[in-house]
Amino acid sequence: GTPQKYDPTFKGPIYDRGCTDIVCCVLLVIAIVGYVVVGVVAWTHGDPRKVIYPTDSRGQFCGQQGTPNEYRCPGSAGLRVGLDDLKRSFPTTTIPRASSPAQICVSKCPDRYLTYLSAYGSRELDYYRQFCVPEFHNPQKVAAVVCRAEFLFSCPVARRCFPAIRAKKGVIMVGNETTYDDGRGRRRNVTELLEGAKKANVVLETRQLAMKIFEDYTVSWYWIIIGLVIAMVASLIFIVLLRFLAGIMVWVMIVMVILVLGYGIFHCYMEYAKLKGEAGSDVSLADLGFQTDLRVYLHLRQTWLAFMIILCVVEVVIILLLVFLRKRILIAIALIKEASRAVGHIMMSLLFPLCTFFLLCLCIAYWASTAVFLSTSNEAVYKVFNESACQFSGQTCKPETFNTSNVTKLCPDAQCLFAFYGGETAYHKYLIVLQFFNVFMFFWLANFVIALGQVTLAGAFASYYWAFKKPDDMPAFPLYSAFGRALRYHTGSLAFGSLILAIVQVIRVVLEYLDHRLKAADNKFAKFLLSCLKCCFWCLEKFIKFLNRNAYIMIAIYGTNFCTSARNAFFLLMRNIIRVAVLDKVTDFLFFLGKLLIVGSVGILAFFFFTHRIKLVQDTAPPLNYYWVPILTVIVGSYLIAHGFFSVYGMCVDTLFLCFLEDLERNDGSAEKPYFMSPDLKKLLKKTNKGQPDA
């Protein structure tokens, strides 16, 4: 690309700018309107109670007011009866092709063992009726019977009836029985029900665990908040200290890397020398071939020689890079210090991630609620079933009006029975498309919110860099001004960049779904191709995020459209590729070190406090069921807080770096074209503003 030329009118972020990428802005507005419509339709048809409350196999709620099963709770989850079982019981009866419910709402759990065959024709039939759907009237008419083939002595667990399995002197029993009739004339051992009982026990234990965790939060929430405040203060202190200790921290890191590699070389040499003369140690790697037990290679001298050569090459390369890139490392350190000054002058930037976090929470909440409502939009579908030929057979019907319809007149033996749980309207047929659109819009809006935050911070920090006299020449409210410019002029550009990233992310989601479906397949070529595609799109997503980030900085400064900004940013970075690589690695290390230090320190402090190991506050710490609950909460919260602070700091470093590169290309230090960089950077680069004092 062509380097930037001097522009006498350029004094930082351009205020006289126009709207960019208007078409993408219109598309975003239309998509949001469509997203709202999808949400309204989903909220109209969906019912999230289906996720919370138990239902029978027809989708009817159990024990909820205003429902047919108001006074019934979910039935037994034991062995399930199928149509084949009913046919064996009544071979002369025609069984409808409708699916028999395996989950039935009951008023109470069964207190005895009983099968349909043993109850039929006996006094137990009336008791058995309690565990059938209300339509069960005529036991001879099996086509209308929706009952379980058998049920066991059960007890209620999490609003469901599970077999009451107990152990007596090492013998597994249900009630007082060790065996049961499976409804097919065969006796089966109770131990076959253990797997289902284990799952029921998991449900019960999970519920108890959730209650104990909730109790821990109620007694420790204020201490958790104190821990998060400590993490926030520590993050702020670390950012301030970077202004003074960045150079020391970077050079200590470099020295530690060199020392670690040196020790590695020494250790490899000692192992190489120790194996001299031992039997089998002189076998070459080529003669040994591939071995599944990797420890075999550690007994070969050639292995340690190869390790030693590799480490020596890495050591030499790092030392040479330090010799030739020492000036660029110093520039990176100076930029990091300058970023601390910029954040100090725009302290509100540290609170701005809260706005981004709030908007992201709204996106997540809308996406999750819409997904729940869409997934619970299914309805009970009833079909016409009959024992003789009928032209209406298989057609959809409504039980409420079926008896008064023409179907019963033309086909007297026809019945309107439950077929499946779904829906046959256009809305239900395209539910999967709506779910896909929901996921796509979530990615698009989430990326848009992140882009808005990046452009706002970039505009604010760019106004700091391009102020000749810092901070006197800075605008009064740089963050507010940058936010207003981003929304007013560049909504379309932000929508364009976030749209590209959202498309790639959706493709990655589809690839992950295909990979999950192909796990059971034995097509190695398809798995290999899918792995290659996943790797390529992962790299593409990382590249687009990098390009978008720098494009947003150029948008904040110059007000150009997305494509122009991305091109200019890319060529500017490519003209300074070595500086980019050095700065990226140095800042990555410092941010990693900062997060590790803050999260580790606060986590250790929380551990000693909540485990009553600090004598001064030993009696202050609350009693807990699980001390790891508040500790993990503090650790995760501390990481999120530290990440929020360092994301601002990272955006500041990237913005100042691009401005620094632009400054070097635009200006030469003369009276007409003075440098805007800080005195430390000018001193490091041996640059001066001729005829003007440094700011």
Can you tell me about this structure?
The chain has helices at residues 22-45, 49-52, 83-89, 116-119, 124-128, 194-274, 285-288, 301-345, 352-375, 399-402, 406-410, 426-429, 431-465, 478-489, 491-517, 524-558, 562-574, 577-610, 628-666, 679-685, and strands spanning 73-74, 105-106, 114-115, 150-151, 154-157, 160-163, 165-168, 171-174, 179-181, 187-189, 379-385, 396-397, 415-422. It is built from 20 helices and 13 strands. The chain starts with 21 loop residues before the first helix and ends in a 10-residue tail after the last helix. A hairpin with a 2-residue loop joins strand 7 (165-168) and strand 8. It has a three-stranded antiparallel beta sheet. Strands 1-2 form a two-stranded antiparallel ribbon. Among the domains are: 22-48 and 352-375 and 427-562, no CATH class; 73-195, no CATH class; 382-422, no CATH class. Residues 74-101 and 141-145 have low confidence and may be disordered. With 695 residues, the chain is mainly α. The chain crosses the membrane at residues 21-43, 221-241, 248-266, 304-325, 346-368, 441-468, 489-511, 551-574, 586-610, 626-646. It catalyses: ethanolamine(out) + n H(+)(in) = ethanolamine(in) + n H(+)(out); choline(out) + n H(+)(in) = choline(in) + n H(+)(out). Choline transporter. Belongs to the CTL (choline transporter-like) family. This is Choline transporter-like protein.
